[in-house]
């Protein structure tokens, strides 16, 4: 099935991007007005994230989000046949020299960004316009639940110059690169939700209590790599501006993660319509997490007591 999907997408990608945008306009009407794909969820997320905005403002943001969502879809399809030269035209860097300096010093780094703008172009199409294009870029990805779509996206992303690494293979790749002594960038889209067992801290993010992903910070502490935040601005349809900002650690617990979340919120608040609002990001609450942790601790104490009683009886 994924091969059929890929073949159709490849033929579709041969069309000029301006023609593909016409399909995006039609897709917006279909998805927003007819199918109403997760429309209530997107509006709810936006309304709760910006309580200071009126209902009309939130509806406008929701509509603009769905327009961008459809634009991003056809842009991602276009990746299959878009040349490096054409891709480079669509990005403007304010300070790409920061990344070039790391390469020249033979240093690796961790690059963090979010589901903002067109993250597929940025992470999987290989960040363009760098002075040292040989600087290896590893993009960390999560497998999709749908098998056919996961294979389709993997094959599409594999056409890029970015090297794909599944999350469970990251440590192996880090060790391998360290042995080769070759500098590399490790790109993390770090604004997605976490599982119960991966929750360690809670922060105020977009007016919600949110438990962020701490993986990039844990790896940074283990390897000594600096963490860079990529601030994205959508200049116009299909054109993006990128700015790299180093996240300076303060020595406090999970300070890098907290700072990343603050920077991500600033980016989103500037133009909310370009963030991905259709996910159930806040379905796991702090109250429920605390209840689960309490029950697990209770179970652990019970098991410990049973073990101690058994040991006493054996003696």
Any key phrases for this structure?
7-stranded mixed β-sheet; two-stranded antiparallel ribbon; 315 residues; alpha/beta; globular; 16% strand; single chain
Task: Compile the SSE list and pairings.
Elements: H1 2-13, H2 17-35, H3 39-49, H4 55-78, H5 84-89, E1 91-93, H6 97-104, E2 109-113, H7 119-124, E3 136-141, H8 147-158, E4 163-166, H9 170-180, E5 184-189, E6 203-205, E7 208-210, H10 215-223, E8 226-236, E9 239-246, H11 255-270, H12 286-314
Helix pairs in contact: 1-8, 2-4, 3-4
Extended strand count: 9
Low-confidence stretches: 304-310
Count of separate DSSP helical elements: 12
Coarse shape: globular
- The helix/strand order is HHHHHEHEHEHEHEEEHEEHH
Biggest sheet, in brief? Answer: 7 strands, mixed
What share of residues is helical? 40-55%
Q: Provide the structure class.
A: alpha/beta
Average pLDDT rating: 86
Q: How are the strands of the largest sheet arranged?
A: 1-9-8-2-5-3-4
Q: Specify Rg, calculated over alpha carbons.
A: 22 Å
Termini Cα gap: 63 Å
Task: Note the beta-strand portion.
Answer: 15-25%
